[in-house]
From TrEMBL:
InterPro entries: CBASS_pafABC_assoc_protein (IPR051534), DeoR_HTH (IPR001034), HTH_11 (IPR013196), PafC-like (IPR028349), Tscrpt_reg_HTH_DeoR_CS (IPR018356), WCX_dom (IPR057727), WH-like_DNA-bd_sf (IPR036388), WH_DNA-bd_sf (IPR036390). This is Predicted DNA-binding transcriptional regulator YafY, contains an HTH and WYL domains. The keyword Protein transport does not apply. Transmembrane segments: none annotated.
Length: 330
């Protein structure tokens, strides 16, 4: 959101020539203090914003930079009209404003580029939701969103992956949407941490603010931490033979299996393959779900586990059906 605000400041100054700090704060619905920090950020990256003192003073851009700002090519303008993810905008509560902003931008752009923008809008749509969309932003999304905007410290009660509830005091630096899930990236007394919003059990916004680290970049931090997380995930490899009837099904719907590598078919038509999972339990459940369509070659311990699971299923349903003449176990 800060990048959007900085761009908005540049566009305001481009259109109006000069604006006071108070006018910018009112237009962007932020504090005067925030505008001063934004101007420092613009100056730090070499954008020539200057402040004029006096009754008729205000912020303005140097004339040569104002001219450069409006020179957008066809591709740059078109890129602004790639449809954003609707469910993310809805979660943030700005879907209506985004639609209105696009309409205003469309009306203001040169007519020569308007058709290209309309073509992009009608031909590309980004949908990051799932087929059966479920809300996974948590009960306290709005409170956390406000804390992020206001740089307000909060105390949370959080359910860890192991089910334990812990209490943490955090400085929420940003929100990240990944698929249909939302996360808050925060600074804590123990360093940077990421919390899944749906696991937050309570949020208490404290009467304390924090100073955002000047060097912190949310997108860069997320990509680095995500890469580190993926690299540290456990891997469980199995060697199997696949019935030809299910190969395409595995490739199309491989949501649990992480990777599939196949070799040339055997004389009986079955296909040797290597599959990767996170853990043994996932592999066993996956293979068992295909009944007699997958033959496990290695590891031997996995075959034993699958047999034990199959026997447990037979015993479970055998007890339910015994006496009804439908299933009798030896």
């Amino acid at each position: 959101m800060r990048a959007d605000r900085l761009l908005s400041i540049l566009l305001f100054l481009q259109q109006r020539g000069k604006m006071t700090t108070k006018e910018l704060a009112q237009a962007l619905e932020v504090s005067v203090r925030t505008i001063h920090r934004d101007m420092d950020a613009l100056s730090a990256v070499g954008i020539p914003v200057v402040a004029e003192r006096g009754k008729a003073g205000g912020w303005r851009l140097l004339d040569d930079f104002r001219a450069k700002l409006t020179v957008l090519n066809r591709e740059e303008i078109s890129s602004l009209f790639v449809a954003p993810s609707l469910h993310v905008l809805q979660d943030l509560g700005i879907a209506g404003q985004a639609r209105l902003a696009r309409q205003k931008l469309m009306a203001a752009m040169p007519s020569a580029y308007r058709q290209a923008a309309e073509q992009i809008w009608e031909r590309i749509y980004v949908d990051t939701s799932t087929w059966r969309q479920t809300t996974d932003r948590g009960r306290f999304f709005r409170e956390m969103q406000q804390a992020v905007w206001r740089e307000q410290r909060v105390r949370i009660r959080y359910e860890r992956a192991d089910g334990h509830i812990v209490e943490r005091k955090i400085d929420p630096l940003g929100l990240v949407a990944m698929g249909s899930k939302w996360y808050v990236v925060a600074r804590t007394g123990e360093g940077m941490r990421t919390y899944r919003m749906s696991r937050i059990q309570a949020v208490d916004r404290l009467e304390e603010t924090f100073i955002r680290p000047a060097s912190f970049r949310l997108a860069g931090y997320w990509h680095e931490s995500k890469q580190a997380f993926v690299e540290n995930l456990p891997q469980y490899r199995i060697e199997v033979e696949l019935s030809p009837a299910i190969v395409e099904r595995l490739r199309f719907g491989g949501r649990i299996v992480k990777e599939i590598q196949t070799d040339a078919p055997l004389p009986d038509g079955w296909i040797p393959a290597t599959l990767w999972f996170d853990v043994e339990q996932e592999a066993a459940e996956y293979v068992l779900g295909f009944a007699d369509q997958i033959r496990v070659r290695a590891p031997a311990a996995l075959r034993t586990k699958i047999i034990q699971m199959a026997q447990a299923v037979l015993r479970h349903y055998g007890r339910q059906m015994d006496g009804q003449g439908e299933l009798q176990l030896p």
